[in-house]
Design a protein that fits this description.
- By secondary structure, this protein is mainly α.
- About 65% of the residues lie in helices and about 0% in strands.
- It is built from nine helices and no strands.
- The longest helix has 23 residues.
Length: about 200
């Protein structure tokens, strides 16, 4: 197959672009960056305590690794699930570093019940719910949080999440079930939890 030019790169699959990246094709790398930097930045932002600067740093680190060592990509896996798997491992490493810096976030999950907030009879402000959801997500086990964010924030399919974690689809479903149950209990003052829409099974 000949080299890709112009719009052909935009129409190429992620996996085909990675083949070109391994051969040193900078434009193929730029196309992958354009496709995924926004979603991966959002993922890091959600996983790393809404720290925008840290999320930006992690994004740059991830794509720097991809540029420097594209041969680390496993071509037997879909690029998207591999990319989120790498991002998730980077978050886990960051959690370990954070444990050295301060009391670990997972420890917070033992700190009792959610504080009941007085509510007027009207619908709760969505921004208030979002803040509380972020706080409760930070208290979850990192794998539970990552699974929730991949599913409901990044709209990955159950199968894709299973591939990213290297676990069964049943384990993903079970993890989501218990995570949702835990969040519903902690956020019960808001009534039924208005989960983000997700489109795929």
């Amino acid at each position: 197959m000949g080299s890709l030019f112009g719009t052909d790169r935009r129409n190429a699959s992620d996996e085909r672009l990675m083949e070109l990246v391994v051969r040193g094709d900078e434009r193929a790398f730029a196309e992958l960056y354009d496709r995924y930097h926004g979603r991966v930045l959002n993922y890091f932002h959600r996983m790393l305590w809404s720290d925008r600067e840290r999320a930006q740093d992690m994004l740059q680190d991830l794509f720097a690794k991809l540029a420097q060592r594209p041969d680390q990509y496993d071509p037997s896996r879909p690029f998207r699930t591999w990319l989120f798997s790498v991002a998730n491992n980077m978050c886990k490493n960051e959690y370990r570093r954070e444990e050295v810096r301060r009391a670990a976030v997972p420890e917070l999950r033992h700190n009792g019940r959610a504080v009941q907030e007085p509510q007027a009879g009207e619908a709760v402000d969505r921004a208030s719910f979002r803040r509380r959801l972020d706080q409760e997500l930070d208290k979850l086990d990192p794998d539970q949080k990552a699974t929730f964010v991949m599913r409901y924030e990044e709209d990955l399919a159950i199968k894709e999440i299973a591939l990213a974690f290297g676990i069964s689809e049943g384990t993903v479903k079970s993890r989501l079930f218990y995570t949702l149950k835990k969040l519903a209990e902690r956020l019960k003052e808001f009534g039924p939890m208005p989960l983000p829409h997700h489109g795929r099974a």
